[in-house]
Automatic annotation (TrEMBL):
It comes from the Bacteria. This is ABC transporter permease. Keywords: Cell membrane, Membrane, Transmembrane, Transmembrane helix, Transport. Residues 119-350 form the ABC transmembrane type-1 domain. It comes from Neorhizobium phenanthreniclasticum. InterPro entries: BPD_transp_1_N, MetI-like, MetI-like_sf. Belongs to the binding-protein-dependent transport system permease family. The chain crosses the membrane at residues 28-50, 125-147, 168-188, 223-242, 281-307, 327-350.
Amino acid sequence: MAEITTSVPRDNAGTDLRPNPLFLVGRIIGKTLLPVLVTLFGLAALTFFIGRMLPIDPVVAILGDNATQEAYDNMARSLGMDKPLWYQFGIYLKGILSLDFGQALTTGKPVIEDIARVFPATIELATLSIIIGTGLGIPAGVLGAMYRNSWIDHVIRFTGLIGYSAPNFWLGLMGLVIFYATLGWIGGPGRIDFIYEFDIEPITGFYLVDTAITGKWDVFRNAFGHIILPASILGFGALAYISRMTRSFMMEQLGQEYIITARVKGLSWGRTVWVHAFRNVAVQVVTVVALSYAFLLEGAVLTETVFAWPGFGRYLTNALLVGDMNAVVGCSLLVGIIFVTLNLFCDVLYRVVDPRTR
């Protein structure tokens, strides 16, 4: 039997011209990480200089309006505000690399500690919201494309229109009036009733997870009763966006020739849609879900305010109201990191799932 060999490209001196695998890996990492680093650097510069241009004096925010000139000058020197702006930016970048965003004026604690304290509440709320929005939005979008212009499609599109149009704060207030004050089906504002505050053992920072791990199911039910309404309202907004985009993607696929071929071969309509058509839009749908999740993590400000939810959005709102620029800049950077990370995840997913993008 003849041996099958593959030719290796070589130059005239016989040197292997194939690129070094380490070089290929380095090039891929460089092409991926360099834009991310440049984006984060630009975001840090933008937030820093905008914070310095705002008509808010951090020294006055700390000491108050009645501080003496000597105390004002001493505090300005301790904050580095007597240095040139470029020097202050260098100190700020150095602090970012060590996760030091300065101290929050509202709490007197490091900003990174405040974010670590409030962010689990937002993650828990946003995660349950995206589960609701994805679990209902994707099937709704597919059904709308399958039965285009039918009564099913009209109901789904009308529901999505309500999700787009109705303000979250109004839905939150109406939900509290109906389901909490009138019917008593859910818990009120806050993350949990006060009597259960000290019954939670902080393991992950997520109340539903911590109470389930420790087996405290009465506390779990109370925490779930508090989170289900705000999560449903945020999930309703995500459902509207996800279902509309899924319907659009699926309608484009259902007009392709391979769908007609599959039907001619005898495949059922449901199998054709879910197995063949949906597979081709799955990556696009995951991208939509990922971006919706990012918006939920940073955009739940009004909902957290209405429900007195001690999360990231409420913390950022309070920082803006009192002019706490250390907290505002730190939160802005975190939002940017979230979006950059999820975009990077989507890019990697595209490369893994779709060989044409490699």
